[in-house]
Amino acid sequence: xxxxxxxxxxxxxxxxxxxxxxxxxxxxxxxxxxxxxxxxxxxxxxxxxxxxxxxxxxxxxxxxxxxxxxxxxxxxxxxxxxxxxxxxxxxxxxxxxxxxxxxxxxxxxxxxxxxxxxxxxxxxxxxxxxxxxxxxxxxxxxxxxxxxxxxxxxxxxxxxxxxxxxxxxxxxxxxxxxxxxxxxxxxxxxxxxxxxxxxxxxxxxxxxxxxxxxxxxxxxxxxxxxxxxxxxxxxxxxxxxxxxxxxxxx
Amino acid sequence: xxxxxxxxxxxxxxxxxxxxxxxxxxxxxxxxxxxxxxxxxxxxxxxxxxxxxxxxxxxxxxxxxxxxxxxxxxxxxxxxxxxxxxxxxxxxxxxxxxxxxxxxxxxxxxxxxxxxxxxxxxxxxxxxxxxxxxxxxxxxxxxxxxxxxxxxxxxxxxxxxxxxxxxxxxxxxxxxxxxxxxxxxxxxxxxxxxxxxxxxxxxxxxxxxxxxxxxxxxxxxxxxxxxxxxxxxxxxxxxxxxxxxxxxxxxxxxxxxxxxxxxxxxxxxxxxxxxxxxxxxxxxxxxxxxxxxxxxxxxxxxxxxxxxxxxxxxxxxxxxxxxxxxxxxxxxxxxxxxxx
Lengths: 250, 340
Description:
Number of helices of chain A: 9
Mean pLDDT of chain B: 90
Low-confidence stretches of chain B: 1-5
Helix content of chain B: over 70%
Structural class of chain B: mainly alpha
Strand content of chain B: under 5%
Helix content of chain A: 25-40%
Number of strands of chain A: 10
Strand order of the largest sheet of chain A: 6-7-8-3-9-10
CATH class of the domain at 5-93 and 164-247 in chain A: Alpha Beta
Radius of gyration of chain A: 18 Å
Shape of chain B: globular
Mean pLDDT of chain A: 91
Distance between the termini of chain A: 33 Å
CATH topology of the domain at 5-93 and 164-247 in chain A: Rossmann fold
Radius of gyration of chain B: 20 Å
Order of helices and strands of chain B: HHHHHHHHHHHHHHHH
Oligomer: heterodimer
Number of strands of chain B: 0
Largest sheet of chain B: none
Distance between the termini of chain B: 31 Å
Strand content of chain A: 15-25%
Largest interface: A-B, 47 and 38 residues
Structural class of chain A: alpha/beta
Largest sheet of chain A: 6 strands, mixed
Low-confidence stretches of chain A: none
């Protein structure tokens, strides 16, 4: 079966500094794959390469078998890649309903309509309502986003990505900064993501990684250091040494 | 006439009702436009001033489309006003004397100029945009100055004599036809703008303004949207310029002056941006202030104008509105103004 995501020898250099080098990563269809690594390991650069924010210096990216190395950001979204951000990147003045409707309309190709009302496209609105309800945002969908509790904003991050109907979802530290009492909502929602969506989780939080992922890749100094099933990585002494050593709760 | 409600085939869901309510007409809006049209009869001897207000209002509305909705700052919006003004003048002088035809062509030409200029404002920060738009307007001003054999240069373009509007309504000395004409054009363009900002396209502009990075990651191609709204704003500005030419029957280099761009920005500072009425309300306040102050102190009115603006900005329009006009605050909210 064609992997959902495959990178071959992917690299990015900023001058002499190699932020990513020779990353060959394969994520199977429907996988729950986690990418971990200490600060400065190149995780953010890797996401930027995958989503097309940065052009790669070397290597290729295949999404469901198609070479997307030179495809624009929007092109990758249309081909089924969506991401969330470690620090909320939302539309503070819009409501969650508008936020999600926007992404749905864009996906359906009706986002540039300029002569009809936003509320007149019932297919878009119904889908937005269903998605927001599923993401536990149903009661707050008509409030301005910047008035939502932080945990709810994190949920909206994920809902917004899901509105693009991704085949591959890149989750960048979904629970980062969420207060303890709201944490469960986020973890539950991540766990409840549809099985047919492949998820690549970029995470620091080991509890979340071990409860969620079935495979783990470890990135160290811009290179893939180890990869394998959760138990294997958790038991790998080398990984423990470079990474898990300090903040492992295994 | 105002809104076309599609025949309901199914029951409207609560979220759809919420979105529709956001775009619905509120009574202060009806009141605003009814008053504007009622003034045709109520204030027959102030038509010339009201004509100027309508034109400034339309011009500021056009700036609001890019500033308030797409977050594009501009110090050179007069460039498009000037293109429209000169186009209307030259068209009238050389054969196309019917105003509405001239208006449409002038708007299209200004739109073409806006389309070309839009590629320069796609990238960069607010500061670069301010400089680029300012530079473009200066270039246009100098071109108009140098091409004095077409534009009349510093003497202005004389001999602009538009015929009757649609072949029926002659311009008169009291400015009545002029006001009705400018107000009607402003109203129709306002309706179109209102429709556009409440559309999915309009929503995507607000998203771009709020967070361009995220807008791009949900598949919105920012550049196309920005080019579209910048071009549209240029059409509006050009039509405002054409209205000025046609109703005053004269064009001078003043249409391209820096102060005209700055005035539009001041109008939005006074009236607020991002809810379409800011330009119109601001234009009324700005012109009335200017009119009153220059009547009171002919020599020093600019001082007082500046003084008021400094106070306005330092204290903040929102707080001023809340403080001085607390009773009117709910009214502003009703027409969609930012929480005063």
